[in-house]
Model the fold of this input.
Amino acid sequence: MIRTGTRYRLLALFVLPALAVYVAFSVYPLISSVVLSFFDSGTQGSSTFVGFGNYVHLFTDKYSSERFFNALGNNVEFFLIHLFVEVPIGLLMAALLTSHSIRRSRGVYRTLLFIPATLSVVIVGFLWRLIINPLWGLVSFPLLGDSHTALPTISLMSVWEYVGIPMIFLYTALIAIPDDILEASRIDGAKAWATFWRIKFPLIAPQFGLIAILTYIWTFNGFDIVYALNGSAPGPNYSTDILGTLFYRTFFGSSGQVADLDLGATIASVIFFIILVTTAAYFVVLQRRIKTYEL
Amino acid sequence: MRSKLAPIAAIAVATIGLTLAGCSAGGTTGSSGSVTTITFGNWRVEDQALWEENVIPAFEKAHPEIKVTYQPTGTNDYNAAIQSQVDSGTGPDVIMCRPFDVNRAWIDKGYFDDLKSLPGIDGFTPTALGAWTGANNDPYCVPIASVLAGFYYNKTIFTELGLKIPTTMAEFTAVLQAIKDNGKYTPLALGSADGWQLSYNVLDSIGPNYWKGEDGRLGLIDGTKKLTDPDFVAAFQAVSDLKSYMPDGYQSLKYEDQMQLFTLGKAAIMADGSWDVTAATATGLDIGVFAPPVVKAGDQRYLQEMPDQGVGLNAGSKNKDAANTFLSWLASSDFQSIYVDKVPGFFSMGSAPVTYTNALAQEFADLKTDALLTPRLQLDRLSAGTPPLDDDTWAVLQTVFNDGVSAADATAKLQADLDSWYKPAN
Done:
């Protein structure tokens, strides 16, 4: 029998290594980045505290705010396309995989559908750019060159790549439904369609909240697919600029632009704040109200 | 239990051992006295082998007491990397300088030592040094390479269709039209998916003939000229007129696509910079270059010569004597003849003539004869605020090509954006 004091000491001992690594590589950089956003580094390497000056500049300066709100709007569109295209397709795939219409090779299909999610974004971008290339591809319309179609096109490439992830979430939820419930519904005379919408769907509904919030976090942290396709000043005319690329361009500069570390840190903090507030709100407000059934 | 932990322990011991070895190795080089090691920070990752095998050995042979470490960072992260290193006192001894405004900001931040008394710096013209001068007009970096821009053309296609190299814009349009009418080849390999390329290789290439090179460029800087002046609008119009000779779907064609189109022999002419001389000839086609045509026959010809790489001395360096020796060597023709000949497509900025073994590079260098040289329009002072004229031009030119914005509207927007922050000195 270990005494309580010793137990806490042991607990601390076991938690400490992970905690130290987490603090050193995650918490500390995060805090120092937020701190950096309150400073303005001038000439001669000096740095002065400016309070919320960088934030005021970001939200009110004619040029900076235009770029920021443009990126924010694009990011919302990027998220909504993911949510409303990726999740229904993922649900359809998961439903087909668990239905009895596929009798054999279920594992093969599952693997095939998930493979794109394991590919590098650079490869996905390259493949799709070739497929829709007006010179040698399948589509003669310059999808990526038109400011109305460019962002939806990139979003759909990303959907194609990551559709396996909601599918796997929903698939695991679907196969977790006990057979006796489904058998009972069959005995009661329910057809496949009714069984799915009245029995299975309510049981997997809590998954949608989780998928939505994960998609939200991924898309608002998004950067790679846009950068791989269109670089850090994503055109045409910034129509595919999202928060990640705006941050990159500001923080790292470009051959003709001085790197603005302070404003970059400000943008990073704003992105962090947007994600934090929404995620917290989701967990506090929504997650508790989602009805779960005891199986 | 013991056997399971053994490999981990071994790795731990090995790591500690290596770290200690690393420290002690670092210690001996520093303290051996007779040999000083200096580091050279730059963004030319792709030239590492060239510098380490050709350039640095030539220097170390002449100066055995100095060793040079080549320390490249990818070009996208270069500005942020150098800024954080120099600010924290760990910057390299000599630093490759970005041209114009980025470097001017770095000079203002106190990153560099003044080089006006460096032996050899007087071998450069004020125009060559101009990309790297401070507010006091003193040079802060040794210019080591510039790039040019022009039009590559496929000689076989020109012979087949009986075309001559155009020297005026009217002839240029006639040539493009003839290729288009023939229908077998794309007249101009050019896509508008990359804004920088429209700006640097098209507008800044044919534009100087309209705004008269330095006249127009310096006029914008001192406020005597505006982008809405007829010369500039005409230049934008000339760029916009190229649309009808570009491949279908050019709106989403990238820089790589146009190079592919050209090197596969499917396009007759390509607008590009001199840095692509190797890529353009990679498939063995017979390629030549011609200069951006003048507006009217008999006009003075202008050519874009863009200062690309300079090298400056870190003000916080602890090995300034050795670094100065190195910089002084970089200013000599010994270095220039090795360097620009090994990196085809880059050109020496010194006054001493240099010959190039690469035939196409020599052809490019020959375009400089009789032409007045001018750097890119947007980069000097006009990009030191937000929105920078540089980035703004990329985006606005893209709207000209992709959304059908007129030359007049495009120049009006650029001038309005510039007026929002730029105040000419006088």
Notes: The beta strands of chain A are 39-41, 47-49. Chain A touches chain B through 39 residues (CB under 8 Å). Residues 26 and 126 of chain A are 32 Å apart (CA to CA).
